[in-house]
Recover the amino acids of this structure.
């Protein structure tokens, strides 16, 4: 790596959590710059000038400013090949991406903070309605993933892959919003195995939360 690697981060962001995990898995040292979404710091002109979408994470690396968590992870995977996040086999790669996208494309985008705030402020949804919304989309996606999860091991088998990296932050969100997980014993077991691994534990929200 050239120069300092800087992650524009928010401790509760599941997208940023994914990138923290992969940086740790690949042994890439970085400096975190907090962007507090709770205080709308992502809308500050200086941050928007750097990242016009005004979202976290953003990663400064090798003279580039990268955005979107899966695009960042793809860059890191190309830059440091071990451990790989996807398989070189086309069919296996497609399967891994499909599992990851159940979370990163189907669950997370419609349950993130700006969507929930829009439901509250623009559509007048109360907290009970927002919780029903949140639970519905997590449960819908987790049902599909549970059916695809192995009886033993991780989604990546013996080694965490991109789908595992996406799963752990979404499981954290599910616990935070009290989503019932009894119907997903395989996902719960995978999540427990992964959270016990040092790269995942060091990336967890509770490990990086501001003092």
């Amino acid at each position: 790596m050239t120069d300092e690697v800087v992650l524009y981060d928010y401790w509760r962001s599941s997208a940023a959590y994914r990138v923290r995990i992969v940086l740790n898995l690949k042994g890439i040292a970085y400096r975190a710059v907090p962007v507090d979404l709770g205080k709308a710091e992502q809308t500050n002109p200086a941050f928007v000038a750097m990242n016009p979408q005004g979202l976290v994470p953003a990663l400064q690396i090798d003279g580039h400013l990268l955005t979107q968590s899966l695009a960042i992870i793809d860059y890191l995977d190309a830059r440091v090949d071990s451990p790989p996040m996807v398989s070189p086999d086309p069919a296996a790669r497609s399967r891994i991406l499909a599992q990851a996208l159940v979370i990163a494309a189907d669950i997370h985008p419609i349950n993130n903070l700006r969507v929930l705030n829009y439901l509250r402020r623009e559509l007048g949804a109360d907290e009970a309605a927002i919780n029903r919304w949140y639970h519905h989309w997590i449960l819908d996606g987790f049902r599909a993933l549970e059916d695809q999860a192995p009886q033993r091991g991780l989604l990546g088998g013996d080694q965490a892959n991109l789908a595992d990296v996406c799963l752990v932050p979404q499981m954290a969100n599910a616990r935070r919003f009290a989503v019932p997980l009894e119907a997903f014993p395989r996902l719960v077991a995978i999540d427990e195995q992964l959270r016990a691994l040092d790269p995942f534990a060091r990336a967890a929200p509770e490990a990086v939360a501001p003092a």
Q: What stands out?
A: The first helix runs from residue 14 to 25. Strands lie at 6-9, 31-34, 58-61, 64-67.
